[in-house]
Amino acid sequence: MRVFSKSLLAGILSLFIGVTVADTYPSKPVTLVVPFSAGGPTDNVARALAEGMRKSLGQQIVVENSAGAGGTLGTAKVAKAANDGYSLLLMHIGFATAPSLYRKLSYDPATDFEPIGLVAEVPMTLIARSDFPAKNLSEFITYVKANSAKMNFANAGLGSASHLCGLIFQNAIKTEIQTVPFKGTADAMTALIGKQVDFLCDQTTNTTEQIKAGRVKAYAVTSPKRLSNFADLPTLAESGFPGFQVAVWHGLWAPKGTPKAVIDKLVSSLNEGLKDAAFRDRMSKLGAEIYPAERATPKALGEFSKAEIARWAPIIKAAGQYAD
User: Fold this and answer.
1) Is residue 43 domain-shared with residue 180, that is, in the same domain?
2) What phi and psi values does residue 42 have, to the nearest 5 degrees?
3) b/e map of 51-65 (b: 16 or more CB within 10 Å)?
4) Across residues 148-154, what is the average pLDDT?
5) Does 279 share its domain with 140?
6) In b/e form, how buried is each residue of 97-107, taking b as 16+ CB within 10 angstroms?
7) How many CA atoms lie within 13 A of 111 on its CB side?
8) CB 253 within 8 A of CB 175
9) Which of 33, 66, 102, 148 is buried most deeply by CB count within 10 Å?
């Protein structure tokens, strides 16, 4: 009689369970958590991607907005969710900045998630209320510096992309400006359109339609080169601020311990979603750049997010802004 070791039996059982899960997953709708309010830039990416991935998964992907604390509340929710593939997270650059911004996090970005892949990168635009007096970027900066005591700069909360862009902008023009945090970028945009705040630095996925409709006034983009859909807007880098480049990357994660067979299916579905014509058209119109297939992988996202955590730590430390 052949005797099998416990470790061998465990391995065989694990393999069997993985195959079974792969054969049945997904058997019900999948929840995609967006840790920001509905209507914001990350929400725009999530909803377009969810529809593209649905076609290959064969199940609905329900977008759930769980906003608050710069995206950390929704992120923590996924970290604590069952690792069965039915709770996913679509998060942006804030995934990498949170460890430096928050003294206490209820999750560890490096150990509490399974990376699935990178999704898209979105440049940002510097925009102001529609009646802002400056006609161009040079006039805008001059006006802001001269009136800094009575100006306010909206953002989507500590750790948000708009907050980070604001820190870099204030440092670049060597001027401190009062910031007004909101629960999400959609709320910040509503306040800007309503002329309750003066200006905002936000992703093109949230600003493009507002700029084209004339509800806000645009002054510059944060990309290394001008955007095709805003060719008349200068980059901050070409306007006397070399190195001022802020792009907001988005990635897809699952809770730690999600079976590899499920992750593999999600990676495949993600890549199909990124190729979806409707998704690509939507991202193009909003100025977002979709990552190629070789970066829509667990390895690429894992390595990239680790490097981003290291990149932003000294920048945030120098700014001296932290949350409890």
Assistant:
1) no
2) -70, -35
3) bbbbebbebebebbb
4) 95
5) no
6) bbbbbbeebeb
7) 4
8) no
9) 33
Q: Give percent of the chain with pLDDT exceeding 90.
A: 69
Measured torsion, CA atoms of residues 254, 255, 261, 265, in degrees rounded to the nearest 10? -10
Q: How confident is the model at residue 45 (pLDDT cuts 50, 70, 90)?
A: very high
- The larger pLDDT score, comparing residue 92 to residue 7, is at 92
Residues 115 and 131 in one domain: no
196-201 average pLDDT score: 97
Give yes or no for a cis peptide into 26 (omega within 30° of 0): yes
Q: Range of 160's domain?
A: 123-239
Would residue 8 count as lying in a domain? no
pLDDT at position 1: 46
- Chain Cα centroid distance, residue 43: 9
Residues 57 and 114 in one domain: yes
CA distance 62 to 53: 11
**SS3 per-residue string spanning the chain:** CCCCCHHHHHHHHHHHHHHHHHHHCCCCCEEEEECCCCCCHHHHHHHHHHHHHHHHHCCCEEEEECCCHHHHHHHHHHHCCCCCCCEEEEEECHHHHHHHHECCCCCCCCCCEEEEEEEEEEEEEEEEECCCCCCCHHHHHHHHHHCHHHCEEEECCCCCHHHHHHHHHHHHHCCCCEEEECCCHHHHHHHHHCCCCCEEEEEHHHHHHHHHCCCEEEEEECCCCCCHHHCCCCECHHHCCCCCCCEEEEEEEEECCCCHHHHHHHHHHHHHHHHCHHHHHHHHHCCCEECCHHHCCHHHHHHHHHHHHHHHHHHHHHHCCCEC
Percent of the chain with pLDDT strictly greater than 70? 91
Number of domains in the chain: 2
CATH of the domain at 50: 3.40.190.150
Count CB-CB contacts under 10 A for residue 160.
30
Query: Partners of 254 in the beta sheet?
Result: 114
Beta bridge partners, 283, equal: none
